């Protein structure tokens, strides 16, 4: 029986286990959409989720990959649809999430003719993709799917298949058994990647010699939580978490110091400043100023990606291996540290830090303290909740005030730190786990940029979700606040009204206009009830909170240089800064320089 190349393409995606595609149509990709439609009619299809913008489709594919471990798939027409995908694909690349992008293209007969919507898409995608190829003949399509998906999975990166319109509609031709054709296959099994015994031995020697061991984990330690806890116990270590590894370990373990970095905690900062030994597991955490100064600590690193080894700290032993298997092989070689004083000191700091967090969250603000929004959410969240955060000051509160529990999942755009990912990630989470409640934390700027439009996608699909609870919590501070603070603290400039102020929008009302529930909060006392209401709702909820832009997302430590720059911005006539001075001065000046 003959079939179109697009029908074969969809069939092959099915064979790879693809069940859902996030995308947006256009004439450049209509052949493939027709094939999805035919497959669905035959009862053997792929679910197509229509988004508002292709960038959001790519973010959803990333969210799917992060929350399921399966490759996420997004689709666009050629030209503008393809360029819209690009930012989301960079999110996949930078957070090592496997994503396949399918893009349309002008007809092969029009290529090179400056035709409408015709671009050299393979060049556009070349930097972001681990594999990119435009089809020029139906016989190619089999290996393009196979390579695109396999490389995306195996390299935790981006595969892009570009299909010109005419190829999609041509009769499918299997590759001939003759010169000039290739015969590819479906399927990929992850290998065991374990370092040699001699290298494990060297690593154990370094770790056993240390008296003050710090462990840093990232998303690469996701399946190794049990082994990380065992290692921390044996070594008497503290464990700090890079942001993408926030949900790898719950925050209730006494030696878990929480997030690290500018958005991190003081115990994580101290852990790194005082340790004599560092064990990094599955993390590409970029800000090396938050790691021990070079020479202070002897270091061991474990990473499945050799490109990440020896990159952030000069480790003595760099182990190329899977986190779980490598730790399992390493654990029997470690000796139990008798002296527990280092870990006990860390536990004391962690305990004290949670009190600081509570005090900061409960401090009065005008009108609502944004830290309190997340602080009040945290204990109310069910143990199967998934939390996403956008980029902006809410990422600070997500990092510090959200006390993640065992079983919860959480993520955000980490490496790219791109605005606009929270709602599409949350939508992808709802499709991947419709039985779980999902919360997205979003700033008003990010809401206006593109998250707001995706509320329409929520409205379109929410009734399909077994558990309809999806809470989009908007921090309405009428400011691009994270950057306002960067302008103040990093540059020493006062807030620049023209670039920072964002219009006041009625987010809760907008949600209501779509048939979703809208809750508006402008007093701190109402927060707890609002969260409870949202968590009991029978439909998605937009929880809009009027938050105070003058609550500083202070880094865990602040350098004297930054403090001086901050002070300079005050005297240059920054109105908000005068208000904030009294609140933050004490936090600033008992920090190290
Ligand atoms: C696409 C993109 N553009 C710009 C930035 C720089 N940026 C980071 S946070 C931020 C402010 C976000 O404002 P909002 O969403 O209102 O959150 P707030 O910080 O006010 O809580 C900006 C502009 C970015 N990360 N991504
Ligand atoms: Mg804002």
From TrEMBL:
<dbReference type="InterPro" id="IPR012000">
    <property type="entry name" value="Thiamin_PyroP_enz_cen_dom"/>
</dbReference>
<feature type="domain" description="Thiamine pyrophosphate enzyme central">
    <location>
        <begin position="200"/>
        <end position="330"/>
    </location>
</feature>
<dbReference type="GO" id="GO:0003824">
    <property type="term" value="F:catalytic activity"/>
</dbReference>
<dbReference type="Pfam" id="PF02776">
    <property type="entry name" value="TPP_enzyme_N"/>
</dbReference>
<dbReference type="InterPro" id="IPR047211">
    <property type="entry name" value="POXB-like"/>
</dbReference>
<dbReference type="Pfam" id="PF00205">
    <property type="entry name" value="TPP_enzyme_M"/>
</dbReference>
<feature type="domain" description="Thiamine pyrophosphate enzyme TPP-binding">
    <location>
        <begin position="390"/>
        <end position="545"/>
    </location>
</feature>
<dbReference type="InterPro" id="IPR000399">
    <property type="entry name" value="TPP-bd_CS"/>
</dbReference>
<dbReference type="GO" id="GO:0000287">
    <property type="term" value="F:magnesium ion binding"/>
</dbReference>
<keyword id="KW-0786">Thiamine pyrophosphate</keyword>
<protein>
    <submittedName>
        <fullName>Pyruvate dehydrogenase (Quinone)</fullName>
    </submittedName>
</protein>
<dbReference type="InterPro" id="IPR029061">
    <property type="entry name" value="THDP-binding"/>
</dbReference>
<comment type="similarity">
    <text>Belongs to the TPP enzyme family.</text>
</comment>
<dbReference type="Pfam" id="PF02775">
    <property type="entry name" value="TPP_enzyme_C"/>
</dbReference>
<dbReference type="InterPro" id="IPR011766">
    <property type="entry name" value="TPP_enzyme_TPP-bd"/>
</dbReference>
<dbReference type="InterPro" id="IPR047210">
    <property type="entry name" value="TPP_PYR_POXB-like"/>
</dbReference>
<dbReference type="GO" id="GO:0019752">
    <property type="term" value="P:carboxylic acid metabolic process"/>
</dbReference>
<feature type="domain" description="Thiamine pyrophosphate enzyme N-terminal TPP-binding">
    <location>
        <begin position="3"/>
        <end position="120"/>
    </location>
</feature>
<keyword id="KW-0670">Pyruvate</keyword>
<dbReference type="InterPro" id="IPR012001">
    <property type="entry name" value="Thiamin_PyroP_enz_TPP-bd_dom"/>
</dbReference>
<dbReference type="GO" id="GO:0030976">
    <property type="term" value="F:thiamine pyrophosphate binding"/>
</dbReference>
<dbReference type="InterPro" id="IPR029035">
    <property type="entry name" value="DHS-like_NAD/FAD-binding_dom"/>
</dbReference>
<dbReference type="InterPro" id="IPR047212">
    <property type="entry name" value="TPP_POXB-like"/>
</dbReference>
